[in-house]
Design brief:
This protein has 508 residues and is of the alpha+beta class. The chain is built from 12 helices and 17 strands. The strands form 4 sheets. It has a 6-stranded antiparallel beta sheet with strand order 7-6-5-10-9-8. Strand 12 and strand 13 form a beta hairpin. It is globular. The termini are far apart.
């Protein structure tokens, strides 16, 4: 009997031990699965946020490129129109060579060129840059392909064709974009670079590294799709195929040497094609900071769960869920705080501290939807453009031009209400959204803005600049199909202001 009791007690001990081990195994298995799901989900959310940051940053730069290019072309047309009479008078007095002399004296760095052909024979009389082939026939389409902006002068029995070459505009835009990218600063060791595609079929020397702020010595280097990254991947092949197969944009990853370090890190990269120049504008960011945060979170989670759950095994599942809940909330707060600088980078223009283009799109769409749903009346929508800004840039330099923009926007912020919204829409175009401003008050409000900017005296390289602005106002209408319609209407009003002498406003 004693032996049976002993054997039964021993058996019960083994049963208890077995059940305890099973319970512990279940506990560890559940913990492991929850930890895996949690860390995986947080990681995926962080990656998606960083993808949005990369895409928005690249798109903001491309919007700036488009705006700068449009303004530069407008400036070329303006110079052609404003100087044509002077050039014609010079040609009448001094002959065709006066064209070249006038360019050398006034516009040496802009990239002007000209050629002369006989009106009767159509043969080329003068073409110092060999712009026109021997098979020339009077062809306006050929001239348009050659010049960004051009004009003609009739001289005796010949025609002088002169203007700004497309190649000159292309070179100028490349330098402007290089200056922007080298000057911009982004957090977490991220940066933007540009590759220029020569051959979309890939292979040897398919592209040139055009701009790279982290490795400026590599600018001008030829790239090949068989080049490998630090672990044997083919990043340039992945980039090219992604661009071709995904409507001109793609995300991809590769391994690259970190700046100022011997360590290799995995980078998440976004690339988008700028088709006018066959540029791929890229931006990348390392995965390391996400992985480090996830690793630290997992360690803390495991410690908290064991400390709370082990003393009371019967309650460990409930305590585990509580610990996970608290940890998830703490981690969400942590990521909300850590992601705020990235959000600010996307929502605000780093130069003028106005709201960014991306923020403006969302704000205008939100205001339009409230108006169409009858929730609120339309705010006043203002389009602002700095008069002759391209001329200021070309005369005093890009840095001084940027400073002029900052001074003007600072003055405007000093003049308007704290609740008013200013958005940097393009290079020197800004949109204002003013809730509560009615059509009856537009005139006094616009005059106050014009007067405030007129009062500025900005020192640019020792020269005092009195910058002016032109304004266009509008409100949403019932017939509008989107906020874009109102923006175009404000742009038309702005155009009227400029055509009528600038430094004024119009409302439509």
């Amino acid at each position: 009997m004693a032996k049976k009791i002993f054997e039964k007690g021993t058996a019960n001990k083994y049963i208890i031990l077995f059940l305890s081990l099973v319970l512990l195994g279940v506990f560890l298995f559940i913990l492991g699965r929850m930890e895996y799901y949690y860390t995986h989900q947080v990681f995926e959310n962080a990656v998606e946020f960083k993808k949005k940051y990369l895409r928005d940053s690249v798109n903001n730069l491309i919007s700036d490129i488009d705006a700068t290019r449009t303004d530069t072309i407008d400036m070329y047309h303006y110079l052609l129109f404003s100087n044509k009479t002077h050039i014609e008078n010079k040609v009448k007095i001094y002959g065709p060579d006066a064209v070249q002399n006038y360019f050398d004296e006034h516009f040496q760095q802009i990239g002007w060129a000209y050629f002369i052909y006989d009106n009767t024979t159509k043969k080329i009389i003068q073409d110092k840059l060999n712009l026109v082939p021997d098979s020339w026939e009077e062809d306006e389409n050929f001239i348009k392909k050659l010049f960004t902006a051009y004009s003609t002068i009739e001289y005796k029995n010949s025609t002088i064709v002169y203007g700004v070459l497309h190649s000159a505009l292309d070179s100028y835009m490349e330098e402007v974009v290089r200056s922007k990218i080298h000057r911009y600063y982004y957090s977490e060791d991220s940066h933007i670079w540009v590759n220029k595609i020569i051959n979309f079929n890939g292979g040897q020397n398919y592209a040139i590294r055009l701009i790279h702020p982290n490795i400026p010595s590599s600018e001008g280097q030829y790239l090949s799709t068989d080049m490998q990254d630090a672990v044997g991947g083919f990043p340039y092949l992945d980039e090219l195929e992604g661009i071709k197969n995904n409507n001109g944009e793609c995300f991809y990853s590769y391994y690259f040497l970190k700046k100022g370090s011997v360590d290799v890190g995995k980078k998440l990269t976004y690339g988008k094609l700028y088709p006018d120049y066959n540029w791929i504008v890229c931006m990348g960011i390392y995965y390391d900071d996400i992985e480090q945060d996830i690793s630290g979170t997992s360690t803390k989670l495991r410690t908290i769960v064991f400390k709370i759950a082990m003393p009371v095994v019967s309650l460990f599942l409930l305590l585990l869920l509580l610990a996970l809940f608290l940890q998830v909330r703490a981690d969400q707060k942590k990521y909300a705080l850590s992601s705020q600088p990235l959000k600010n980078k996307v929502d605000f223009d780093t130069l003028t501290h106005a709201n960014s283009h991306q923020f403006g799109v969302e704000e205008l769409d939100f205001a339009y939807r409230k108006f169409t749903n009858g929730i609120s009346v339309s705010p006043a929508i203002m389009l602002l453009d700095v008069d002759h800004f391209t001329v200021i840039n070309n005369t005093y330099g890009k840095e001084e031009g940027d400073r002029v923009l900052k001074e003007i926007i600072k003055k405007i912020y000093d003049t308007i209400r704290s609740s008013d919204i200013i958005i940097r829409w393009n290079e020197d175009e800004f949109i204002g959204v003013f809730y509560g401003l009615t059509p009856n008050n537009i005139e006094s409000f616009a005059k106050k803005l014009l007067s405030a900017v007129n009062s500025l005296a900005i020192n640019c390289n020792g020269n005092i600049i009195h910058a002016t602005i032109s304004l266009g106002f509008t409100f949403f209408k019932e017939s509008d199909t989107g906020y874009e319609v109102a923006v175009r209407r404000a742009d038309n009003a702005l155009y009227e202001s400029k055509c009528n002498g600038r430094n004024q406003f119009r409302i439509r």
